[in-house]
Amino acid sequence: MNSWSGKVYLFPFTLLAIFMFVPLFVIRTIGGFDFWWWMSSNLVVLIGLALLMERNYRLILSEDIGTDFIRKLITGILSAVILYAVFFVGDILSRHILGFAGQEIGKIYAFKGGAAPLRIVVLMVLLIGPGEELLWRGFLQRNLSLKFGKMIGFNLTMVIYTGVHLASGNIMLVVAALVCGLFWGWLYLRYQSMVVNMISHTLWDVAVFIVFPFY
User: What is the value of pTM for the model shown?
Assistant: First the structure.
């Protein structure tokens, strides 16, 4: 559990993840293949590769789900509420301080395009929310931490996660990614639980994009 013979593939896997996500934030849509299908497809491919590369990955997740689930559920819910509150305050302050904030935030919501809210929610709940945490924290941060140490693994993952959002050219999205990367990275560092992170990320996604958006 504390070592992984496939670490030699960690660097090319990380490059692949960057290569797959950067065009997503630049192009967003290719015909009927919109941002949400593209994001979901990327995650399916990368998590599938992660499962093939690391045999223990499935076992680690299974043990995580089967241990102290109620406590993890409550922690995940509370952390999502806390993160939403941070963004609620940040939204108010940024709109008052930064003249461009409102326009940039509006562009983030333009990612929704013409996608039906129900489809976005279903993809967020089944693939995007859980999938991002399985990829960024559950796989990359955990294995980078095993290779370089916990704090370096935390910082590297945060930089990579924030970095792919730079391709969007949207300052507010990059700041949001930085805050989320720090928060969910710390959450994983603190609890070492993919379940906690998956619940937190999924609930926050649905709240911010569908239920209580900032516009």
Answer: 0.94
